[in-house]
Amino acid sequence: MAIKTILVSQPKPEGEKSPYFDLAEKYKLKIDFRPFIKVEGVDGKNFRAQKVNIADHSAVILTSKVAVDHFFRIAEEIRFEVPETMKYFCISEAVALYLQKYVAYRKRKIFFGKQTINDLADVMKKHKAEKFLLPCTDILRDNIPITLEQQGMSFTKVVLYKTVASDLSDLEDVYYDMLVFFSPGGIESLLKNFPDFKQNDTAIAAFGPTTASAVVKYNLRLDIHAPHPKAPSMVGAIELFIKDQLKKK
Hints:
Elements: E1 5-8, H1 19-27, E2 30-33, E3 37-41, H2 44-49, E4 59-62, H3 65-77, E5 87-90, H4 93-98, E6 109-112, H5 117-124, E7 132-137, H6 143-150, E8 155-165, E9 178-181, H7 184-193, E10 203-207, H8 209-217, E11 224-226, H9 234-247
Helix pairs in contact: 7-8
């Protein structure tokens, strides 16, 4: 199984530096990037159907930059003026800083965790009297609401955006030696676009346990699973696989 061409189901990295570019140069690979899924915001009608009143909440939990964008988008669409007293609890400092796009950062009460919902829940413990709003996608990971419930937080989940399959019809006659996935949605998009997909000799790489489970669920062969002790990154796992293949030559 000689690997010469790879399709990564994510947007192309910005700038000239990326481990993928280094990998391509080192092993003379052709690596293409193409998002297999895209995010679409729900409209005001869909939002109102969920019967959630933003004004009933004193704080917002923001798990991504996408969540930030769609929270302020829907607020504008339904003509809700977000009060200056609103508190923001962000999954990471990067998401917190992204709020500057919408609010005067220094004048607002903004809190953030290190990177996980467990970190953020530790921060939120000191603010248990707040009524939290959790803007999210239709495929929110279970560990987020479960962690908040375990910590006794009063929160309301509201779906503000949905993950849908991208149109990949232009790839119908294009073949790659390896496909790289980062979410179950990517696998589902592949099979929605190409219901007759046959894996054959195509290697499939999956990042994270839920993505790996989706590969197996749809009866595909999982050739590369990251992270693991020898390769914490996807690029590292791909390189190990390529090295193993070269040894077998």
